[in-house]
Every structure is written in structure tokens, then in C-alpha cells.
Amino acid sequence: MKKWTTLAVLMALPASVAVAAVPYGSMPPGFEAPHIRTAPIAGVVNQYWYNYKADILEAEKELTSDLRHATDREDRWDAWDEWETEVVDADKDYVKEMRKKGYRSGRVTVGG
Q1: Where is the secretion signal located (predicted)?
Q2: Of 30, 31, 44, 46, which is least surrounded by CB within 10 A?
Q3: Residue 89: pLDDT band by 50, 70, 90 thresholds?
Q4: Cβ atoms 35, 92 nearer than 8 A
Q5: What is the predicted pLDDT for the residue at 50?
Q6: Helices 73-100 & 47-69 angle (0-180, nearest 10)
């Protein structure tokens, strides 16, 4: 039920609205944030795009809460690791569903 509430809120927002702010300033040294999509695959805004956005918002909400309650360095690393895993999983799920619908995520390779 909670996911549907988040989804309803997201559907009311334009597709270009940015996701919640992640406290990148508190990211551990050497930690690389995964890519978070700012536009839907092939420009198609559908339920899978909204599900992806909801998953990202939920991961960011959990990250913020986990960091607020962290008591030591290990807790902070765990929070960031969990966030990274959730963001990567959300992207994999989104790409998988879009592939089923016949849309492909673009990839550019530069090299010789």
C-alpha cells in the first residue's frame, strides 16, 4: 500500500522533477555513487518509470534515516552500501521491464 501512495504522488509530478537530495557530502572517501536515471528509457513515461522513481525515493529516504541514526563509521558505510544496492537493483528491475516491452537502454562506447 505504501508503494502505491508514493507512486500516486510521483504520478502527479512532472517527469523532470529531480529525486530527493542525497547527502553526497557525507559519502565515505572512495565511495562511488551509482548512476541514477534522470530521464526514462526511450523517453517513455510509464508505470515502470514511476516504480523506478518510487524505489529511488524510498532508498534515499532510508539512507537519510540510516545516516541520521548511525553511531559509528561502520554504520555509515553500511547505510551507503545498502543505498547503493537498492539503487542498482531498482535500475536492473526497470531496465528488465522496459526490455520486455521492447525498449532498450542506450549505451555509447568511445574508443578505437
Answers
A1: 1-20
A2: 30
A3: very high
A4: no
A5: 98
A6: 180
Query: Residue 58: inside a domain, yes or no?
Result: yes
- The residue range of the domain holding 64 is 44-103
Q: How confident is the model at residue 32 (pLDDT cuts 50, 70, 90)?
A: confident
Distance CA 80, CA 46 (A): 29
* Residue 4 within a domain: no
Cβ pair 18, 36 in contact under 8 A: no
How many structural domains comprise the chain?
1
Spatial neighbors of 13 by CB under 8 A, at least 6 apart, are none
How many angstroms separate the CA atoms of 41 and 23, rounded? 26
Instruction: Say how many C-beta atoms besides its own lie within 10 A of residue 22's C-beta.
Output: 19
Whether 48 is in a domain gets the answer: yes
User: Does residue 71 contact residue 59 with C-beta atoms inside 8 Å?
Assistant: no
The alpha helices in 13-72, defined as continuous H runs, are: 47-69
